[in-house]
Amino acid sequence: MSRWTFKRWLFWMVFLSGCLGGVGILAVSMGAVSIPLSKTWSILLQRFFGSTASPGWTARDSSIILDLRLPRVISGAVVGAALAIAGAVLQALLRNPLADPYVLGISGGAAVGAVLGILFGLGSTLLGSYAIPGAAFAGALLTLFFVYFIARVEGRVPAQTMLLAGVIVSAFFSAIIMFLISVTSDERLYNVTFWLMGNLEYVASQALGIIFLYLLLGSVILFSLAKDLNLMALGEETASELGVEVERVKKIAFIFASLITGAVVSVSGLIGFVGLIIPHLVRMIWGPDHRFLLPASALLGAMVLVLADTVARTILAPTEIPVGVVTALGGAPFFVYLLRRRGIAGSR
Amino acid sequence: MPAVVNMESINFRYPGREVFRNLSLSLEEGEILGLIGPNSSGKTTLLKLMDGLLHPQQGTVLLEGVDLKKCSRSRVAARIAVVPQEMDVPFSFTVGEIVLMGRAIYLGRFGWEKKKDWDIAREGMALTNVLELENRPFPELSQGEKQRVLIARALAQEPKVVLLDEPTSHLDLNHQVEINELIRHLNTEKNLTVLNISHDLNLAAEYSHRMVLLNRGSIYASGTPSEVITEENIQRVYETTVMVEKNPISGAPRVTPVGKAKVGEFPSPKTIHLICGEGSGADSARRLLLRGYRVSLGVLNIGDTDQRMGTTLGLAMALEEPFSPISGRAYKENQNLMEKADLLVVERFLVGKGNLDNLKAAIEALEKGKRVIVLTNDRPYDFTEGEASVCYQRLKEGGAIFIPDHSRLLEEVEKEVGAG
Amino acid sequence: MVFFLLFSVQDSFSATFTDEVGRRVEWAAPPQRIVSVAPSVTEVLFALGLGGKVVGVSTHCNYPPEALKKEKVGGYITPSLEKIISLRPDMVIGTADGDLKSFVSRLASFGIPVYITNPRSVSGVILSVQNIGEVTFSRSAAERVVDSMKSKMETVREKVQGRPRPRVLHVMAYDPLISSGRGTFVDDLIRIAGGINIAEGAKGKHPRYSMEEVIAQDPEVIILSSMKSKDPWAEQRQWWERWKEISAVRFGRISVIDSDLILRPSPRIVDGLEEMARAIHPETFKKQNSNSKTQN
Predict the structure, then answer these.
(1) Average pLDDT over chain B, rounded to whole?
(2) A189 in contact with C, Cβ within 8 Å
């Protein structure tokens, strides 16, 4: 029958959360400066649970662990989770396995916002300024409204129309960005490119807090739609026949998936492949039931991005590769492998 | 019976195409309504309007007295279940999961299925014979299997009404019957109201209480199957000639297409006279007509299958009152026809006292020099205490050509009289 | 840095030189209309008293103030050929950045000689000044400038002689954080000014640094310079003050130096050198200069 009972679900959630915790600690212990795992562990314990024995580490070590790596790993987890959930939701709504969080043009709008912000010298993310992420988020929101109103027909939002509108808007924003890049002076160019490639290094802690709240709110709402998403995967008509308020579900899902995408893109830039591949990975192993797919994608997305980021900053140390490069270089071949082994629809 | 679904004065159009104008239809509680009509007559659209998937631009659709527009989807789903023609799923849910989705409205927001839900789902799957497919991925099934799963899913909704869009179109005959029997069973046992859209006129006629014939967006005919399925209606709506007769077992109308054989088109055709009855002449008549021969029949009782065919096709016939033995008048008529014919064919039918004279007429004709072809009759056909067998004997001795079946009929005919 | 100068007099007044990338250039008379496509070159020309002969400058040329009034011909990586030609120069001087070959050959096809300088160090800058002086027939002016530059350099050298060399980090850009490595002027300046550039071992001229590495390498002096803004300290202050375990932060040894002084191969580079030395060895320079701010 259904593969999922509550007990089974709970087991996997706990297991995956544990894995995420493990990966997180591992990631925090790795970096350009070598700090042994035991020290890392002690520092973390001390920070979160009060002092243990006399500190065997320097202020330098603890500064690196707590002020540099820990926020970065948490950023990676939050961004990875958000992208994976958004990707899964959009794949269900558009009934298209190629959908990812950027397919509706949200990323394009965020990018334009950020690029404009950088070019107008709105301050920098390094410094904890909200200006650039704010501009990016505003761009994302505007895009959402834009796409929604383009695609609306008589009070309904047909999925295919929305997809087309998103693609067109994306292309339009890409063109704007290309234009901006071509007329910009050379120094700022590097900042713009850097932002577009996506990175987790400069996500300020305060911004992280806000983003996390968005993720929490968005996830709760999207998880509550899991049952409806299962039905929508059968087709909008079928879902309606089975009792789903299709238009309402679509609106809510689109809005919140776009919100969490916009929120993370505005602080991390464009990190690709996570939103596309993670949901497929989960489906291939555990099946397409969204009651599991959504939270599992979040946990797995978090893990994968943290791992990718760790690779990005350690493999060619001290040089850092942009994390988007790692996700693409790793994601594409892995996806090809999965495709050949099992097929996209995840036939087991 | 109160109407469960009431469509009043519906106007509906798709962008650029009007479908229904001022259409009214009701679905009575506890009935099986068969909806037939040519493609693009609006059958599926009607179903969607009934389920609230589409809303008419004018007019109302009432579900148990409440305007569908005002009903929430879950309220509709609790009462009406739809079995679509096909379902294309890009994700591999298992059969069990698909059927369980019918329980969605009963599950609550974060719903996990309870034992009761599984039981109901399994019950539906058992009824439609897909229980052993429970863990197979849905996309891998055959068309027929998929269809049965969809029916099981509809049953899982525990609906009052089931709307089926050509549910048996992809099924083997045994499954077709099975499903229709299942529907009938659910209808009588659980008072399930059914709307059955069907391409198969005969099956629909067989299993429907009431039928509606839709043509180009309006109701062409409505009533009992016999009232709706008439040769005239079918001719007008489907633009094809058929013969409608009564199914001898159930009494439901039974449609037989007779093709587009045009009679009398060919110059100076040869005429073949068939001595037949009980439908034994249908095969020969068809073959001969298609080849361009003229065909006459006799003696047939009115009401006989071959008589009906003859009437439909406009053939010359010698007729007798129903259930009466062959009278002298009929006999004479038969003789006339036989004289005009170039060849006689004696078909294979049961011979009793009433139609023994048909054989005798054949013997007469043979003796007069007519060429006769006889179908060997090896079934127990003789209800005349041996007289019939004697007739056959005499036909044989008289030089009639005996053939075992119709496959060489045309050959022999051509040999005897030339082409048509 | 290898260069040699050939001076040959031919029948009409013409001279042949070899520029700093090894090209042979020739012109018929002392140049009267000069176009400069690099800010450093502009500064040199004005310093040599040739300001009156300059007919075109790049958009980035901002010193001396008189340069701002000259016709603009575009950026120094992609100057506008049209504009340059329309000014009818008899000489164009530039640096070896940007897409050199096509630029030079296009100008050559219009019969305009181009002289390319390529200084790589502070000494190289001095040499460039001399060369430019040669090719513009302003030798004596060049000698004066060069002497002044050399003496300033010597002063600095003497002052920092024998002193312990602190670790220095130059922050050229933040977000991402970029420093200056081996082969850049800044690297040279740091060395002459008596410090150790922590980025000299990194890959490339402008390596990207993660904060982790900065913390690990613990610079004792941090120099901020920015092409984007005039007051990087105000912008970056909040950030740096979080990292008290970095010596430079702990002891308030963060200085701002105008990027034009240390990134540009012009005569003022020796002023930049002074600033640098002041920042690295403040104890030897009692005088406070308005160009430099040392933060506590």
Answers:
(1) 86
(2) no
